[in-house]
Recover the amino acids of this structure.
C-alpha cells in the first residue's frame, strides 16, 4: 500500500469522526472570505480538491450561494458525508493528480487540506495543473502545515493508524506559483492548537492567474 492509498484508507475509516472534529472552520474564515471576494463573477465555477466531509464547501456556499462548486475527494466515505452536508453541490471521486482530466475550466480552485499528503514534487505539479485549468484571472487557494520539508515522515494517530505527512515551505510554493505565472495576493499563517498542546503552523496562500 503506497502513501496515497494509506491516506485514503485512514480517511475512509474515520470519515464520521473527522466530520465531527473539523466541521468548524472559523480559524480560516478570513482567508476563505478573501478567496470568495477575489471571485468577482456570479455563478463562478469552483473546483474543490480534497473536500473531505464538505466543511469548507459548506462555508463557501453559505458565504456565496451562487457558486457552482465541484467538490472532489479520493475517499468515498468522505464524499458521502460531503454530499449530505452540501446536497446542492456536485460531488466527484477524483485524484488531485488528475485534475486536468476533467476537461473543464474553472474560475477558482480551493485546495484547503490536501498538501500534507502530497510530496514537494507533486505539489509543484498540482500548482502547474491548477494554472492550466483556471480561466483568466482565476483564483487558487492552497493551505498546508508549514515546516522544513525534511521533517516530513510517518506520524501515528491516537488510534494507532500511520499516515505520511508532508510539511511544506512558503519559499518554494510561492516560487512555483510565480514561475508558472500566478500573482500571489495573500500569504498568511495560522496557529493551530493540537489536542496534545503542541502548535502547528498552518500556511495559506491565495494567488491569481
Amino acid at each position: 500500500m503506497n502513501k496515497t492509498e494509506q491516506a485514503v484508507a485512514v480517511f475512509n475509516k474515520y470519515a464520521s469522526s473527522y466530520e465531527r472534529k473539523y466541521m468548524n472552520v472559523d480559524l480560516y474564515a478570513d482567508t476563505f472570505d478573501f478567496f470568495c471576494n477575489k471571485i468577482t463573477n456570479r455563478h463562478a465555477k469552483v473546483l474543490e480538491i480534497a473536500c473531505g466531509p464538505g466543511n469548507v464547501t459548506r462555508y463557501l456556499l453559505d458565504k456565496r450561494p451562487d457558486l457552482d462548486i465541484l467538490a472532489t475527494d479520493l475517499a468515498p466515505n468522505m464524499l458521502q458525508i460531503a454530499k449530505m452536508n452540501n446536497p446542492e453541490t456536485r460531488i466527484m471521486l477524483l485524484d488531485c493528480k488528475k485534475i486536468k482530466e476533467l476537461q473543464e475550466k474553472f474560475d477558482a480552485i480551493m485546495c484547503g487540506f490536501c498538501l500534507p499528503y502530497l510530496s514537494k514534487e507533486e505539489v509543484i505539479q498540482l500548482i502547474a495543473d491548477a494554472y492550466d485549468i483556471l480561466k483568466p484571472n482565476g483564483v487558487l487557494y492552497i493551505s498546508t502545515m508549514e515546516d522544513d520539508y525534511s521533517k516530513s515522515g510517518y506520524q501515528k494517530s491516537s488510534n494507532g493508524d500511520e499516515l505520511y505527512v508532508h510539511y511544506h515551505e512558503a519559499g518554494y510554493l510561492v516560487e512555483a506559483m510565480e514561475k508558472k505565472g500566478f500573482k500571489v495576493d495573500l500569504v498568511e499563517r495560522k496557529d493551530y492548537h493540537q489536542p496534545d498542546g503542541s502548535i502547528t503552523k498552518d500556511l495559506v496562500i491565495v494567488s491569481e492567474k
Notes: The domain at 3-208 is CATH 3.40.50.150 (Rossmann fold). The chain has a mean pLDDT of 94. The two ends are 36 Å apart (CA to CA).
